[in-house]
Amino acid sequence: MSDAAKPRVFSGIQPTSDSFHIGNFLGALSNWVSLQDTHDCVYCVVDLHAITVEYDPAVLRHRTRVSYAQLMALGVDVERSTLFVQSQVPAHAELAWALACITGMGEAGRMTQFKDKSQKEGSDRATVGLFTYPILQAADILLYQAAAVPVGEDQRQHLELSRDLAGRFNARFGQTFTVPSALIVKDTAKIVDLQDPTSKMSKSLPAGCLSLLDTPAEITKKVKRAVTDSDGEVRFDAAAKPGLANLLTIEAALSGRTPQAVAESFSGGGYGPIKASVAESVVAFVEPVQARVSELLSDVAELDRIIAAGGTRAAAMAAPTLATVYERVGFVRASG
Predict the structure, then answer these.
(1) Fewer Cβ close by (within 10 Å): the C or N end of the chain?
(2) What is the pLDDT of residues 28-71, one digit of tens each?
(3) How far apart are CA 29 and CA 239, in angstroms?
(4) For residues 15 and 47, what is the distance between their CA atoms, to the nearest angstrom?
């Protein structure tokens, strides 16, 4: 199937940590890689979103490069997919303003991410950028006429806003945007924190987070300290034994088996062998990824050239949509 015949998907990830973690890969990024076979993929390191909270400019620049390098190392092919850095395509911010002007204050205020982050940071420290974050996210999607967006439950509300704004703009100004659908990828592994199995794995909780750039010793230490339970029976039961189920899920995802099959293979052996196997599997997975990331980061000029090429490609894809929007909302366009 030619790229022109493939449905287009858009997805983005923030460069807000020094490394992605195994949950990012098994829960989302592995799908980015596999979707390249069936879809016209547009993937983005969303650095504009990363500045809605306090940050260090030098750290952001470094993390943006590291994020891009990790995506390449994990299997996103810059020849097959459009992989770019959001801030290199000004059309994102430009479209976001047009969409903001058809978004109600109450509508934006109902977005759960703003509520959650503003409560954590305090309302006085919450920025207007954080408040309008979902509108920029809608612009990200609509700019590329994406037919579908891979989403988890935590992003479903934001996708609904994108759909609402696309429909509203189309009704008011004429057919302009593709109304995107949610792409729910089945059999996605949900990975939780090694120390607190009731929480998603997160970079904000490093003790229970297996980062893709952790050393083998760090990975082994974290897995050996993973919370399990006291009865010692090896079986897959996410409700009653969430810590063990998490380890079985990781091992299953990395070995191409089901968690139940993994549990059966360790039946009667206690938790020690499972932890040893999980640590070994994670290390085996991350080692070639780390080698490729190191190779890419060893020549920053070349990496920046690749990033710039992705930005140029994305900008060319975005330009027709933005031009149509500007024409339809009534702006006088520069000639020549």
Answers:
(1) C
(2) 999 999 999 999 999 999 999 999 988 999 999 999 999 999 99
(3) 26
(4) 6
Torsion from C-alpha of 282, 69, 189, 156, nearest 10 degrees = 160
CA dihedral angle for residue 78, residue 82, residue 86, residue 92, rounded to 10 degrees: 170
The rounded distance, in Å, linking the Cα atoms of 38 and 147 is 13
Residue 41 · residue 80 · CB < 8 Å: yes
Which amino acid belongs to residue 171? A
Question: Is 120 exposed, middle or buried (CB count within 10 Å of its CB: 0-12, 13-18, 19+)?
Answer: exposed
Residue 224 has pLDDT above 80, yes or no: yes
Reading phi first (left if > 0) and then psi (alpha if -120 to 50, else beta), residue 164 is in alpha
User: pTM, whole model, 2 decimals?
Assistant: 0.93
DSSP type of residue 333? P
pLDDT value of residue 2: 57
Q: How far is CA 264 from the centre of its chain?
A: 32
Of 250, 205, 198, 255, the residue nearest 227 (C-alpha): 198
By annotation, the residues acting in catalysis are 117, 200, 203
Outline where DSSP puts E strands in the chain: 8-13, 40-45, 82-85, 148-150, 181-183
State the Cα angle at 113 between 110 and 118, rounded to 5°. 90
Q: How far apart are CA 144 and CA 175, in angstroms?
A: 15
In contact, 203 and 15? CB cutoff 8 Å: no
The rounded distance, in Å, linking the Cα atoms of 137 and 135 is: 5
Q: What is the DSSP letter of 18?
A: S
The total number of residues written for the chain in this structure: 336
- Segment 269-289 mean pLDDT: 96
CA distance 156 to 179: 14
What are the structure tokens assigned to 229, written together? Answer: 């339970």
Q: Determine the residue type at 294.
A: S
What's the one-letter identity of residue 176? T
Residue 8, beta-bridge partner list: 40
DSSP state of 103: S
Say what percent of the chain tops pLDDT 90. Answer: 79
Q: Which residue has the tokens 């607190």?
A: 196
